[in-house]
Design goal:
The chain is α/β, with parallel strands linked by helices and 179 residues long. The chain contains five helices and seven strands; from the N terminus they run βββααββαβαβα. It has one domain: Leucine Aminopeptidase, subunit E, domain 1 (3-Layer(aba) Sandwich), CATH 3.40.220.10. 40% of the residues lie in helices and 22% in strands.
Length: 179
């Protein structure tokens, strides 16, 4: 685990399973249709149970790329799931960096709105959506660091990374950003 202080807040990087996090909210790597898919999305829906999808269907008609919506967390340890839609990576020239940054920022704004003090993120768009890991890590970490400096909330932001390569990449990018 790697941890840095940003003002009064803590930014953590851990290797693990996002469905096991005890933060108030976890972020789901959702798709625009908000239909359970594979990867992080599938794991959250499997472990959280049918209540999450029922609430998504009742409240929302989808979610545009770069935006985020919020539901309860069903059977998960967290209280909320923030469903963020990251971009599908094509060539980096179709607004992918801005859309990815917006997915993180809009998730953090939802956390502020719901007075959430701790949140766990996966590496949005880096799985099936094909975003290059190092570029995605830099965007994600810059957005979170700047957000924490500006708002001083949430008190804990944790990146939960699946696999050693993702963890090491985020750790290296973080080291370069805060040194």
């Amino acid at each position: 685990m790697k941890q840095v202080k940003i003002g009064n807040c803590i930014l953590e990087i851990v290797q693990g399973d996002i469905t096991e996090q005890d933060t108030e909210a976890i972020v789901n790597a959702a798709n625009e249709a908000l239909i359970p898919g594979g990867g992080v999305d599938g794991a959250i829906h499997r472990k959280g149970g049918p209540k999450i999808l029922e609430e998504l269907r009742a409240k929302y008609k989808g979610c545009p790329t770069g935006q985020a919506v919020i539901t309860g967390a069903g059977n998960l340890k967290a209280r909320y799931v923030i469903h963020a839609v990251g971009p599908i990576y094509k060539n980096g020239k179709r607004c992918e960096p801005e859309l990815l940054a917006n997915a993180y920022k809009n998730s953090l704004l939802k956390a502020l709105k719901y007075n959430i003090n701790s949140i766990s993120f996966p590496a949005l768009s880096t799985g099936a959506y094909g975003y290059p890991l190092e570029e995605a890590a830099e965007i994600a970490l810059k957005i979170v660091i700047n957000f924490l400096k500006e708002y001083q909330k949430p008190k804990l932001v944790r990146f939960v990374l699946w696999g050693e390569n993702s963890y090491k990449t985020f750790e290296e990018v973080l080291k370069n950003l805060v040194s």
